[in-house]
Design goal:
Layout lengths: L17 E3 L2 E3 L5 E5 L6 H11 L5 E3 L17 H14 L3 E4 L6 H7 L2 E4 L7 H8 L5 E4 L6 H13 L5 E5 L18 H8 L4 E3 L1 H5 L5 H10 L4 E5 L17 H22 L1
Parallel strand pairs: 3-4, 3-10, 4-5, 5-6, 6-7, 7-8, 8-9
Antiparallel strand pairs: 1-2
The protein binds phosphoenolpyruvate and manganese (II) ion (MN).
Phosphoenolpyruvate (PEP) binds next to loops.
Length: 273
Amino acid sequence: MERLHLVSRESRARDTIVQVGDVKIGGGHKVYIAGPCSVEDAEQIGEIAQAIKDSTHILRGGAFKPRTSPYSFQGLGQEGLCLLREAGRLAGLPVVTEVMSEAEVEGVADSVDMLQIGARNMQNYALLRKVGAQKKPVLLKRGVAATIEELLLSAEYILAEGNTQVVLCERGIRTFSHTYTRNTLDISAVPILKQITHLPVIVDPSHSSGDWNLIEPLSKAALAAGADGLMIEVHNRPDQALSDGPQSLKPEKYRALVKKLNRLVCLLEEENR
Ligand code: PEP
Ligand code: MN
């Protein structure tokens, strides 16, 4: 095992609490991050933000999209950032979006409250150093073929540059099993990470499964395993979404899910008391 230093509970026993706008993540603060895979236009992101604002802590939406094919929708770029920020402002929610290159870090950090490093960039060390050297909190997603140790070492890069505001995200890994799911949710990563590191750990059931029907059971499993929150894709018209429609919940389904999950969180808190 490579030496983990700053991310380890040996260097800091108490849970780190990450602050995104007025929202706290970790140390008992559970968070729901929700919104579309991609920001598509003002009406789409505005409508979704308004529909979920009472059940959501942080609004998500991709502007720079890491698509497997160069011919797929690549995101609205700078315009998407502006639309996301405005939708968040009107809904009273802080916003998170992915940043894909070093050159874009400053511009994105100026526009949003939290920077996401996507699965495909988990080992882009120059990018990790760059987000580590600025002040906005970072949501670091696990690579599809990354071990738990590699995820922690990537977080170590960010902390080593001075930014301790890092949230880890399990989003499913590549396994032999992909007939019914897009990826395989590594649920055991949650309690293992919580043991090793003081950083908050959330789960993304949307990219883990690729199927909106699986969001509820995977979300429950994640919270039961000790996750500090969830990141869930929500779209007002999933059948017309420009990316990840099949895994997106409609706002009303998402709101009903959050009600159930809040009850589960209360039960779990009682259990752990
Ligand atoms: C996303 O959150 O929209 C995304 C692209 O996720 P990942 O990097 O986990 O594939
Ligand atoms: Mn997506």
